[in-house]
Amino acid sequence: MSYKYKGLIEEYKSYLPVSEKTPVVSLLEGKTPLIEAKNLASKIGLKNCKLYLKYDGLNPTGSFKDRGMTMAVSKAVEDGAKAIICASTGNTSASAAAYAAKSGLKCYVLIPDGYIAMGKLSQAMMYGACIIAIDGNFDEALEMVLDISKNYPIKLVNSLNPYRIEGQKTASFEIIEDLGDAPDYHFIPVGNAGNITAYFKGFSEWYELKKSTKIPKMMGYEALGAAAIVKGERILKPETIATAIRIGNPASWEKAENARDKSNGTIDCVTDDEIINAYKMIAQNEGIFCEPSSAASVAGLIKANNMGLVQENTIITCTLTGNGLKDPDNAIKYGVSQVHKTKCDINEIVKNMGI
């Protein structure tokens, strides 16, 4: 069987730093849906706005990381690498391990011990990565892998790798294609800040090529307990339920500020309670299951709207970075519904149904 779609590198080859010599390593990532969220828009109280959710949790390993990883690993293979390495709070490790398995490379991942969702860890384990859990946080893990990649023949595939940003910018291209133009606002979670950097790059490039008439205001949101950019200082011990953005020293800090400033956007923060509220609202009102970190974008939209920062009659897009199955523990903990246990008796079952 032959599929027409060949993955985002083949789809956007003329906009990416690849050549005919680049051995494309793909799991057919990209082409994720942009879902209109009328129920959520009404619930939030948006005035005559159209709201769309870019659901990147439907990439092959369940997160947006696959967009950048297909590029990073393809270029690593082109350069003759035999191994790749990354620090991760979960999604990067899963994606790196999968693309390493596809390409035949060895994969090493450093994770903060006890601070990674089981859904993500299980992926890296199944793909066969060498997993090392350190008694430190993500920022310390990143320092370690940077040092290792400088002193050993191992390619770094964190978002400091410029090819990661190149792959991730394609989400902006897809949004413009789906809408026919760029949105007025784009809301996005901010952890290591590579994704807001990539989206802004993509929106800017297609604006310059006249494929869109505007660049959206980039609206980035950190978690309060890891709000290094908002507070203007490194957070030594970041804490938040949103594990994917539990990062106290974003690697793309300056680039994220550049995206904010040049788009007339903002970088703010939301509390864990606000994240969980949005997490449940997305699922309950739109039938879309994202991981808690993803919901920071919608939590940010709710906050911005309440502050009067969202104009009427505009088009708004929000990135949902990861699939809800990445973090089943929090889904069970904060789920809207409860499990009712009962005897296998029709009367008892109907009683628990409330009818």
Count of the domains? 2
For the largest sheet, list the strands in their spatial order: 1-2-10-7-8-9
Q: How much of the polypeptide forms β-strand, as a percent range?
A: 5-15%
Tell me about the biggest sheet?
A: 6 strands, mixed
The string of secondary-structure elements, in order, is HEHEHEHEHEHEHHEHEHHEHHEHH
Query: Under CATH, the topology of the largest domain is which?
Result: Rossmann fold
Q: Which blocks of ≥5 consecutive residues have pLDDT under 50? A: none
Keywords:
Rossmann fold, alpha/beta, six-stranded mixed sheet
Overview of the structural elements:
The protein has 355 residues and is an alpha/beta fold. The protein has 2 domains: 8-62 and 166-334, Rossmann fold; 65-163, Rossmann fold, CATH 3.40.50.1100. The protein contains 15 helices and 10 strands. Strands 1-2-10-7-8-9 form a 6-stranded mixed beta sheet, with helices on both faces. The chain has a 4-stranded parallel beta sheet with strand order 5-4-3-6. Helix 4 (91-103) packs parallel to helix 5 (118-127) and helix 7 packs across helix 9. The longest helix has 15 residues, at 194-208.
Write the layout of secondary structure elements.
Elements: H1 8-11, E1 34-36, H2 38-44, E2 50-55, H3 65-78, E3 83-87, H4 91-103, E4 106-112, H5 118-127, E5 130-134, H6 138-151, E6 155-156, H7 162-168, H8 170-179, E7 185-189, H9 194-208, E8 217-223, H10 228-231, H11 253-262, E9 266-270, H12 272-286, H13 296-306, E10 315-320, H14 328-334, H15 346-353
